[in-house]
């Protein structure tokens, strides 16, 4: 199997898991609140990352930790809003709306850079 074929297969699997995450989120929202879902998601990611990258984490500087906390807080907010959005609409609508960021971020960036305020 060529590397290109393997890369395409991996992208398909990643997209499938990404799309299914909204369905699972909708299912879990029946038994947990949005903050609990996001908190568990971040805790699980932290634990898995900590196990996989333990040696690298020991070399992290204070500046990197502070920057990571700031970005992590921002990401937590984004995931919380997405989870609340999934609770108020269908999983397919939520996935579609979130995927629109791929279109709007470059467009907004172009407008801001071209027409600097």
UniProtKB/TrEMBL annotation:
UniProt membrane topology term: Multi-pass membrane protein
A matching Pfam family: EamA
Transmembrane segments: 7-28, 34-54, 66-88, 94-113
GO CC annotations, alphabetized: plasma membrane
Main subcellular localisation: membrane
Keyword line: Cell membrane, Membrane, Transmembrane, Transmembrane helix
Compartment annotation: Cell membrane
Domain EamA residues, every copy: 9-114
Keyword Membrane among UniProt keywords: yes
Family matches, as InterPro entries: Diverse_Substrate_Transporter, EamA_dom
Similarity comment: Belongs to the EamA transporter family.
Protein's UniProt name: EamA family transporter
Organism, scientific name: Bacillus aerolatus
């Amino acid at each position: 199997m060529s590397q290109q074929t393997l890369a395409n297969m991996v992208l398909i699997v990643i997209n499938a898991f990404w799309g299914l995450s909204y369905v699972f989120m909708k299912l879990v929202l029946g038994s947990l609140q949005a903050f609990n879902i996001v908190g568990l998601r971040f805790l699980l990611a932290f634990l898995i990352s900590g196990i996989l990258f333990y040696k690298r984490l020991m070399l992290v500087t204070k500046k990197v930790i502070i920057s990571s906390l700031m970005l992590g807080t921002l990401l937590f907010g984004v995931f919380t809003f997405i989870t609340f959005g999934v609770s108020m609409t269908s999983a397919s609508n939520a996935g579609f709306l979130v995927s629109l960021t791929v279109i709007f971020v470059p467009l907004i960036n172009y407008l801001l850079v071209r027409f600097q305020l």
